[in-house]
TrEMBL record:
<comment type="similarity">
    <text>Belongs to the binding-protein-dependent transport system permease family.</text>
</comment>
<keyword id="KW-1003">Cell membrane</keyword>
<feature type="transmembrane region" description="Helical">
    <location>
        <begin position="89"/>
        <end position="114"/>
    </location>
</feature>
<feature type="transmembrane region" description="Helical">
    <location>
        <begin position="36"/>
        <end position="55"/>
    </location>
</feature>
<keyword id="KW-1133">Transmembrane helix</keyword>
<feature type="transmembrane region" description="Helical">
    <location>
        <begin position="198"/>
        <end position="220"/>
    </location>
</feature>
<feature type="domain" description="ABC transmembrane type-1">
    <location>
        <begin position="93"/>
        <end position="277"/>
    </location>
</feature>
<feature type="transmembrane region" description="Helical">
    <location>
        <begin position="259"/>
        <end position="280"/>
    </location>
</feature>
<feature type="transmembrane region" description="Helical">
    <location>
        <begin position="156"/>
        <end position="178"/>
    </location>
</feature>
<keyword id="KW-0812">Transmembrane</keyword>
<keyword id="KW-0813">Transport</keyword>
<dbReference type="Pfam" id="PF00528">
    <property type="entry name" value="BPD_transp_1"/>
</dbReference>
<keyword id="KW-0472">Membrane</keyword>
<dbReference type="InterPro" id="IPR000515">
    <property type="entry name" value="MetI-like"/>
</dbReference>
<dbReference type="GO" id="GO:0005886">
    <property type="term" value="C:plasma membrane"/>
</dbReference>
<dbReference type="GO" id="GO:0055085">
    <property type="term" value="P:transmembrane transport"/>
</dbReference>
<feature type="transmembrane region" description="Helical">
    <location>
        <begin position="227"/>
        <end position="247"/>
    </location>
</feature>
Length: 290
């Protein structure tokens, strides 16, 4: 008699097992873990050794801690303008906002045209390498140092702050703008060029409308950064604004009531900025990277 074939085929053990993701060998994972632990132990040990050198001699830590908590209580619970008026503080805050807005706007316009020379689907390789290298060198130096560098040439004041903030803003925005342009398909741009579309019509009618939302998000994020920098350079470079008022209240008058009022004014502007910036990143930038 002919035996009937079995209904199902047995799968080999190799085929029946699901595919697993690549995992690091156990020895390599242990080696990395030991390296991380060793670095952390060295940092903790170094911190413990250097703490006594940071604390000045003759300082009573208990008294100093009590004074710090008392100053924080005054700042957070008893804010009030003492050496100036509330109107002056509001004007100073508006000056810092205007400085951040101006430097962001000018930097965004300049950065967009430079980004066209740094985009891989538009410019030749040699030009891309030059632009990206120069922008990376500019970004490597903090904004406050650029402001101080221009202060040597132009003197302390708003002029050095405007140029320094704009200079660093251009370098920052060129990178993110160029990355946004790179997301456009190079084949699409090549096809449009083959159809006879010129460079500037391509930029104005294809590139800019396509990445407008991403450009807006990155520009607003840079505005948020520039406002924080405007507060810092207000004291460091004598640029005025709310940063200069904060420096005078804390380092000259030692008036913690006024320091608390200035801190609350800054927070009242920066917290809505942070919320809007987060929503823009979530809606446009993260969507564009998917």
């Amino acid at each position: 008699m002919i035996s009937k074939p079995e209904r199902g085929l047995e799968m080999t053990p190799e085929a029946s097992q699901p595919m697993t993701k690549f995992k690091l060998p156990l020895r390599l994972k242990d080696k990395r873990r030991r390296t991380v632990y060793l670095v952390m132990a060295i940092l903790v040990f170094t911190t413990v050794l250097t703490i006594p050198t940071i604390i000045p001699k003759g300082v009573n830590l208990a008294v100093a801690t009590s004074g710090l908590l008392d100053n924080l209580r005054i700042m957070m619970l008893q804010p009030a303008p003492s050496n100036t008026t509330m109107e002056s503080l509001m004007v100073a805050l508006f000056q810092s906002i205007a400085l951040a807005f101006l430097t962001t706007l000018v930097g965004a316009v300049i950065a967009f045209f430079i980004a066209l020379m740094a985009a891989r689907n538009l410019a030749p390789t040699w030009l891309i390498n030059i632009v990206q290298t120069v922008m990376a060198l500019i970004r490597a130096i903090p904004t406050i140092l650029w402001v101080l560098i221009y202060s040597v040439a132009l003197g302390l004041g708003a002029n050095a702050a405007v140029i320094g903030l704009t200079f660093h803003s251009v370098a920052y925005l060129v990178k993110v703008y160029a990355d946004s342009i790179d997301e456009i398909s190079g084949d699409t741009l090549s096809a449009l060029r083959a159809m006879g579309v010129g460079f500037w019509p391509l930029v104005s009618q294809v590139i800019f409308p396509t990445i407008a939302s991403s450009l807006l998000s990155w520009t607003f994020i840079r505005f948020e950064i520039n406002f924080a920098n405007a507060v810092a350079v207000g004291a460091a470079a004598g640029a005025g604004g709310i940063g200069y008022q904060l420096f005078m209240a804390s380092g000259f008058y030692f008036d913690f009531h006024e320091v608390g009022m200035i801190v609350y004014l800054i927070l009242a502007f920066t917290i809505p900025l942070e919320i809007i910036s987060y929503k823009l990143r979530s809606r446009y930038i993260k969507r564009a990277t998917k």
